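Lecture notes, unit on protein representations.

Consider one protein chain, 223 amino acids long.
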Amino acid sequence: MNITKPNELIGKQVYDDQGSAVGILDKYWNSWKKQHGYVFGIRPFENIRDTWFRGTTKLIPFSTDDIKDTSGSITLKKTLNDLSIEWRKAISIGHISYAQDTLMEKGIYDRQGSRVGSFYAWSEKDNTDSYYGCFIDSYLSEIWQYPYGTILPLRIEYLNYATDTITLHKTLEELKTYWDTYHKTTKPLTKSPPSKKAKSKKQTKNTKPLPKKTTAKKQVTTH
């Protein structure tokens, strides 16, 4: 579903695909991919979080693609059972498996101990690659000139180990290079091929008549 004003959804009640009340929409972030729009966070009702989400006080994430309807309240395409399974899904970091909900909102640090941001999103598949989301700290957004409030992709193999925080295999410099490259390569994918073909066609059309005009002028001046 196309969402153009996510701020207007804040405070609305969220229902699952079967009409069960889940909670209140509490927050949203920009997603790293335009086609996914936004990442939203539900503040679950007390009875719901105790029954389905192991008593968590954390926000339950979902994406723009999960929304069925926003007229009046918000209705999702997923059931409470679907959301619960995703929430408890195991994540392997090194040789240890962690429940996803235990990692949500943990601080993320690079391999040199520099703070990067917070673990906020869910697993997302892009062909064969699996990503998680990193909500980068505001000081990095300012230094790197990234838009504020954006969740950026974090490849699962970048996760090194988890304790009270999550430590990555990468340095800040390596992460910035990856995120810069990622953003540069996602934008031209739909535009580059047509423009290259268009340029090549124009070049082939323009290169043929030029010699004819030149030779014609030379023949006129010689007589």
